Amino acid sequence: MNTYDFDKTIFYPDSSVTFVKYCARRYPGIVIGNIPKVIGTAAAHLLGRADTKALKEKLFAFLAKLPDVDAVVDDFWKENRQRIGQWYLEQKREDDLIISASPEFLLAPVCKSLGVNLIGTRMDKHSGKIDGRNCHDEEKVRRFYERYPEGHTEKFYSDSLSDTPMAMIADEAYMLKKHIISPWPK
Fold first, then answer.
1. 63-91 pLDDT tens trace
2. Are the beta carbons of 94 and 31 closer than 8 angstroms?
């Protein structure tokens, strides 16, 4: 099995940010009305008074007001699927695993269309509330072994050193910067 981060790795730039911007264009009143709460939580996050989970929940709180989240997500992917890197499509395998901090509800349709497996942040698509921890850093490794107790990853690809815990359990690991692949830094 090969394992991939999603954002800024096989999809550029970041799917969560791209999705929020997409929703802001289509539902400006809903998304913009949420911004004051996001700004307050972002400030607290910068000061170390709020964790990433709290910030992400505030950012996605607008989901509660969307008329049909599934339809919005499907339309989002119709417009943005082409952002998946050609380099990935050329080497994609059936047993690939995408492991991402982005919400599972957001990535599930594109992963299904690619025919690959997914582990992401478990977020309620109707409220923006996260079930458990944000799927980031060591949480990715924990969730990997939760799903695949005897799992083995041959190659791991990511754009971020925060994914070093996943790189450490792979036979080979690679860093990407705008789809330029290099060996994982030592």
1. 999 999 999 999 999 999 999 999 999 99
2. no
What would you report as the CA-atom Rg of the chain, rounded to the nearest whole angstrom? 16
Residues 152-163 have pLDDT tens digits of 999 999 999 999
Tell me, what amino acid is at 135?
C
Q: 166 with 182: CB under 8 angstroms?
A: no
DSSP string of 75-98?
HHHHHHGGGB-HHHHHH--TT-EE
Going by their DSSP bridges, the two strands 180-183 and 170-177 should be labelled as antiparallel
Question: Is the four-CA dihedral 148, 154, 155, 161 of positive or negative sign?
Answer: positive
Q: What is the C-alpha to C-alpha distance for residues 131 and 53, in angstroms, rounded to an integer?
A: 10
Over the range 114-147, which residues count as b (16 or more CB within 10 Å of their CB) and which as e?
bebbbbbbbbbbeebbbeebbbbbebbbebbeee
Instruction: Record the pTM.
Output: 0.95
Q: In this structure, are residues 119 and 143 in contact, taking their beta carbons and an 8 Å threshold? A: yes
Please name the residue that has the structure tokens 């690809």: 157
